[in-house]
Specification:
The chain is α+β, with helices and mostly antiparallel strands. It has helices at residues 2-7, 10-24, 32-41, 47-74, 79-106, 116-127, 145-158, 161-164, 192-197, 200-215, 218-226, 232-259, 263-276, and strands at 109-111, 132-138, 177-180, 186-191. The two termini are 21 Å apart. This is CAAX prenyl protease.
């Protein structure tokens, strides 16, 4: 798919079409910032998402794109180092800002109600001394399965690090729970689809899997892996190696959940999630990072 994309000039063709749209709308297509924003906005499938993404891009995009262009123009022989440092800073800022300010624009986050499920989760995190501060449920079911499939196809077509890093159920179709926060301020987010498709024991098993990521420091490793997305020309060369490493992390997290006694419910929960989620099968074989998907 990647070879076909480059051979037939899909991206240059789309870039040219975006320039024509800008000219038609009365803008200057020679403006690299506007042209880039139009190019990125052109890959939206949902009208609501498109509007929200455009507004977000208008606020966040120009300063980041302008800074990158300035670094490229004035970086000289140390261009790569300057870009690396800039993207490292941006990544740290986005890791802090995205879950708190940006993600709520696209999904509704509500505290997990008091009950047996919350009690079981709190007991588990307490036994592992995980510094949980807040526990949310996000309306992942608001995204249609057709939207999931469309975005999965787009991810396959471009193998875009920007999309793969996006913590949205419409893009990362295997995501059902995640954590965020630095140091002692950790927060957990569960997708309502996870709760709807599984009983409490299976949900807690998935939580145990995610806690394995924290216990084994996968987040730290993944952060440094994300930095390699800057070297786009090398991305397609190293993507298979990165997937192997990501799969190894998944196996380690599964093994961690197994040690906690959640092997059977975790297996059943993952199978249930897989069968209830519309995926593209073989189409995602070369880029997926989760070992249980379609295996």
């Amino acid at each position: 798919m990647d070879i076909a994309t480059f051979y037939f000039g899909v991206l240059p063709w789309f870039w040219k079409r975006c320039g024509e749209v800008l000219v038609y709308a009365g803008f200057n297509a020679e403006n690299e910032i506007l042209h880039t924003l139009a190019f990125l906005a052109g890959f939206m499938f949902s009208l609501q998402d498109m509007i929200e993404e455009i507004i977000l891009a208008i606020v966040i995009g120009p300063p980041i794109v302008a800074a990158i262009i300035t670094i490229v123009q004035k970086g000289g022989p140390y261009l790569a180092i300057y870009l690396w440092g800039f993207m490292l800073i941006v990544s740290l800022i986005m890791m802090t800002v995205y879950p708190v300010l940006i993600a709520p624009l696209f999904n509704k986050f509500t505290p997990l109600p008091e009950g047996e499920l919350r009690t079981k989760i709190e007991n588990l995190v307490s036994s592992l001394k995980f510094p949980l501060k807040k526990l949310f449920v996000v309306d992942g079911s608001a995204r249609s399965s057709h939207s999931n499939a469309s975005n999965a196809f787009l991810l396959t077509l471009l193998a875009s690090p920007l999309l793969s890093a996006h913590e949205d159920s419409a893009v990362n179709i295997f995501l059902q729970a995640y954590m965020y926060g630095f140091f002692k301020n950790k927060r957990f987010v569960l997708y309502d689809t996870l709760i709807q498709c599984n009983n409490e024991e299976k949900v807690v098993a998935v939580i145990a899997h995610e806690l394995g990521r924290w216990k084994l420091n996968h987040t730290v490793y993944n952060f440094f892996i994300v930095v390699q997305h800057m070297v786009i020309p090398l991305f397609h060369v190293v993507i298979l190696s990165l997937n192997l490493l990501s799969r190894a992390f998944e196996f380690q997290a599964d093994a961690f959940a197994k040690k906690l006694g959640y092997a059977i419910p975790l297996q059943a929960g993952l199978i249930k999630l897989q069968t209830s989620t519309l995926t593209l099968g073989i189409l995602l074989t070369t880029i997926r990072i989760h070992p249980w998907s379609n295996d």
